[in-house]
Design brief:
Blueprint (H helix, E strand, L loop, with lengths): L2 H26 L8 E6 L3 H8 L8 E6 L3 E6 L4 H11 L3 E5 L2 H8 L18 H14 L4 E8 L5 E7 L7 E6 L6 H16 L3 H8 L2 E5 L4 H9 L53 H13 L3 E9 L3 E4 L12 H17 L7 E4 H4 L7 H9 L3 E7 L14 H21 L12
The structure holds N~2~-sulfamoyl-L-arginine and zinc ion (2 copies).
C-alpha cells in the first residue's frame, strides 16, 4: 500500500478516535453546583414578583425551583450574587437563604444506609438499572398478582416500564405516574415503596387497599431524564429530545399532553425554558406512550395520580385556568381533604394543602392529570407534590424517603375510601346495556 495513503488512514482513525474520546469525556462530566444558593422570597406585590421572575431569563445564573404567587424559591449561581442583591434592593424585597451550597446537599443526599449494599431498599435513592432489576425480582416473586408491561420507548430508546397489581378481576383502576420530572427522585422512591407495601404488607387495611383496586404504576416515566440526573445533572427536569430550532435540549413532559396545550401562559414556547411545551402536543415519545396506554384502558381507570415534588400539595384540575372549576370540584376538594387529614394524622404531622392547580399554584396547561380528567373522563385526578416545603427542595435527603412514602400510602388509602363513598369507584361504563 502507498505509504502516504496508509499515513492518511492512520491520521483519520486517530483523529476520529480522539474526537469520540473527547466527546465522551465531555458528556460524562458532571454538572456541579458549588456555592449555588437557594433563597425564599416572599412577594409583596405582583410587580415585585414579575421583576424577580425576570431574573430567571438568565438561565446560567438563576433557576426557579418553586413559585406559588405568594413566594418563590430561587437558585442563584455564586457569580450572580451581586446582581441578585442589586435586584432585591431595586424591588425592595428581602430573601431568606435556605440552602447555602447546593453541591454539598447533592453530595450528602444519598449517603444514608450502607453504601456498598447491593440490595434494594428505601434508605437511599436508586438509579434506573437498580430499579429495573428490582422490578424484575418483584415480578418473579409475585407472578400471580403482578404483570409487568412496557408503555413504550423513550427518545433515547429505553423501555418505559410499568407494573400492574391485581388480586381480582374487575376492581376499580388506579393509575400512578411517577418521575415524569427527572429530578424529582422522591417520586420513584415512593412509588417503588408503595409497590412493595401493596405486595408484602401484613397490615389488614393495606391488604384491603391492595386487593380491592387494580394498580397500574409507572415508577419512572421520564427514563432518559432520570438517567441524566444520575449521570450528568442532578437538577435536570425535562426529557432529553433535542430541539430542531434551538441548541437547548428537552421538553417539559408535564406541558406536552394534548389538552388545552399552551393555553393561558401555562407553558413556554421557548425550547430553553424549563416549562417548554414542545413543538406540538405529544411530541415526546414518553408522553405519547402514556397517552396511548391510558386511552386504551380509560374505561378501567377511576383514579389518576401524578407524583411530583416539592411543596406538599394536592392539585386538582383545572391547570389551564383559574377562572373556571370542574363540575365535581367540590367532590375533588372533599377527597383531597381526606388525603390531607390522613397525612396530618400521622406522628409527623405533615401539612398538605389542596386546591385546583391553576387556583393555588400557577396556570400549567398540558399536564398529565388535567389531560386525564378533561379528555379521558378520569374524574378523580390529582397532581401530588411531595415533601418538602422548601428546606431541601428537589434534593430531599434519602432519610425522608420512608416518612414521605408512609404519608403517601395513608393519604391514598383515605383518598380512595372517600372516592368510594362518593361513588367514583364504580365501573365506569355499563357495556351490557
Ligand atoms: O409545574 C409542574 O409541572 C408541577 N410542579 S413541579 O414543581 N413538580 O414541576 C405542578 C403541576 C400542577 N399543575 C397542573 N397539573 N396543571
Ligand atoms: Zn382550551
Ligand atoms: Zn414535577
Amino acid at each position: 500500500m502507498n505509504p502516504y495513503i496508509l499515513l492518511a488512514i492512520i491520521i483519520i482513525i486517530s483523529l476520529t478516535n480522539g474526537a469520540s474520546v473527547f466527546k465522551k469525556r465531555e458528556t460524562k462530566e458532571k454538572v456541579r453546583y458549588d456555592d449555588y444558593r437557594v433563597f425564599r422570597i416572599k412577594y409583596k406585590t405582583p410587580m415585585q414578583r414579575q421583576s424577580l421572575l425576570d431574573l430567571t431569563k438568565v438561565k446560567q445564573n438563576f433557576s426557579l425551583w418553586h413559585d406559588d404567587g405568594s413566594e418563590c424559591n430561587l437558585m442563584v449561581a455564586p457569580s450572580a450574587l451581586p446582581l441578585f442583591e442589586e435586584k432585591l434592593r431595586l424591588v425592595n424585597a428581602t430573601a431568606e437563604m435556605f440552602i447555602a451550597n447546593v453541591q454539598d446537599l447533592i453530595d450528602q443526599e444519598n449517603t444514608a444506609g450502607t453504601r456498598a449494599d447491593a440490595t434494594f431498599g428505601w434508605t437511599r435513592y436508586h438509579n434506573l438499572t437498580e430499579i429495573d432489576a428490582w422490578l424484575d425480582t418483584v415480578l418473579a416473586n409475585y407472578p400471580e398478582v403482578t404483570m409487568g408491561f412496557v408503555l413504550g420507548q423513550s427518545y433515547e430508546g429505553r423501555d418505559i416500564r410499568g407494573i400492574r397489581i391485581s388480586y381480582k378481576w374487575g376492581n376499580p383502576g388506579v393509575f400512578i405516574e411517577s418521575n415524569i420530572h427527572a429530578r424529582e427522585w422522591i417520586t420513584s422512591a415512593t412509588a417503588t415503596w408503595l409497590i412493595n407495601e401493596l405486595l408484602t404488607s401484613k397490615d389488614e387495611s393495606v391488604r384491603e387497599l391492595a386487593e380491592s383496586h387494580d394498580w397500574y404504576i409507572i415508577p419512572v416515566l421520564n427514563v432518559d431524564g432520570f438517567v441524566y440526573t444520575h449521570e450528568t445533572d442532578r437538577l435536570w427536569r425535562k426529557t432529553r429530545q433535542p430541539s430542531l430550532i434551538s441548541d437547548c435540549v428537552g421538553v417539559d413532559p408535564n406541558r406536552n399532553f394534548d389538552s388545552h396545550w399552551m393555553e393561558n401562559g401555562g407553558a413556554s414556547s421557548d425550547p430553553c425554558d424549563e416549562t417548554y411545551a414542545g413543538p406540538h402536543p405529544l411530541s415526546e415519545p414518553e408522553v405519547k406512550a402514556l397517552s396511548d396506554f391510558i386511552s386504551i384502558l380509560k374505561h378501567k381507570m377511576n383514579v389518576m395520580l401524578a407524583f411530583h415534588s416539592y411543596s406538599q400539595l394536592l392539585l386538582s384540575p383545572y391547570g389551564h385556568t383559574a377562572e373556571e372549576f370542574p363540575d365535581n370540584y367540590n367532590d375533588l376538594m372533599q377527597v383531597a381533604k381526606a388525603y390531607s387529614d390522613a397525612v396530618h394524622g400521622l406522628p409527623y404531622g405533615t401539612i398538605y394543602k389542596y386546591g385546583s392547580s391553576a387556583g393555588i399554584l400557577y396556570p400549567a396547561s398540558g399536564a398529565t392529570n388535567d389531560w386525564a380528567y378533561n379528555e379521558k373522563d378520569i374524574k378523580i385526578s390529582y397532581t401530588i407534590e411531595f415533601r418538602d416545603t422548601g428546606n431541601f427542595g428537589f434534593v430531599l435527603p434519602a432519610a425522608f424517603i420512608k416518612p414521605n412514602a408512609e404519608e403517601t400510602l395513608i393519604g391514598i388509602m383515605a383518598l380512595l375510601a372517600e372516592s368510594k363513598r362518593l361513588r367514583y369507584l364504580e365501573p365506569k361504563y355499563n357495556y351490557g346495556l
